[in-house]
Write a structure and sequence with these properties.
mainly alpha
């Protein structure tokens, strides 16, 4: 059948997955922002959890870009989306780290990690910078197969960040109920990302800038809203 390589999921189905991911991501970010505003208020330290939780959400969302981009979306567009989301995650993380270091300076504390959260955060930041650098190289050299491990390591780094965020939350003096609620909300996002990654296979043909016969048939059938055999479908490759 059309688009059989991707589980028979047309672009509109992938659009549903995107909507669910957007809702889960938004709820997670807003929940952490609300928690920070209530728990810590408008202080320098507050910038850290807001930026780092947002960075983690961007990173998790970025893991799905190549799966819910849609088989009719140009590979170049999907690459740019992935680069933008992961780049945003890196920028947010850097701001978050700068905020916590500035806060430590203000309080006269050492920069050396003294908790599991800080250690995981330090490891995560180091891995992220490496991953972003490799990603930039792959983006600049689009079309050339290199550093194939980049996509394999990504989820592992996201897992380190998620663990850092979790330990950071549970090391605070927030009430147990608040920690539990935030943990459940975060878990929903992680489950959403995991389901998307397992339900929709990686678009291997787009990795090489090629389309299979089935994907071309899919484009002809759905591009411009035409049905198979219609004028819109007949000239879909030119749209």
């Amino acid at each position: 059948g059309i688009n059989a390589e991707y589980g028979g999921l047309p672009d509109r189905a992938m659009g549903f997955e995107s909507s669910i991911l957007w809702v889960a991501s938004s709820v997670t970010v807003l929940s952490f922002m609300l928690w920070v505003s209530v728990e810590f208020g408008s202080v320098l330290f507050s910038v850290h959890p807001v930026m780092m939780s947002s960075s983690c959400v961007c990173m998790l969302s970025g893991l799905t870009v190549y799966r819910i981009g849609g088989v009719t979306t140009p590979l170049g567009t999907i690459r740019k989306r992935h680069a933008f989301v992961m780049g945003s995650a890196a920028v947010l993380a850097v701001v978050g780290v700068c905020a916590i270091l500035a806060n430590k300076n203000r309080l006269g504390k050492s920069w050396a990690p003294g908790t599991i959260h800080a250690l995981l955060g330090l490891i995560g930041i180091g891995l992220m910078m490496m991953q972003v650098s490799v990603g930039a190289i792959k983006f600049i050299n689009a079309g050339i197969s290199m550093h194939s491990w980049h996509g394999v390591v990504g989820p592992m780094i996201a897992a380190v960040f998620a663990c850092a965020a979790c330990t950071g939350l549970w090391e605070t003096s927030t009430a147990f109920s608040g920690k539990l609620i935030l943990s459940m909300i975060s878990t929903c996002l992680i489950v959403t990302v995991t389901v998307i990654r397992f339900r929709i296979p990686f678009m291997r043909t787009q990795e090489h800038g090629e389309l299979t016969t089935e994907e071309r048939q899919f484009q002809r059938a759905y591009a411009g809203g035409g049905s198979k055999g219609s004028s819109a479908a007949e000239f879909a490759d030119d749209l």
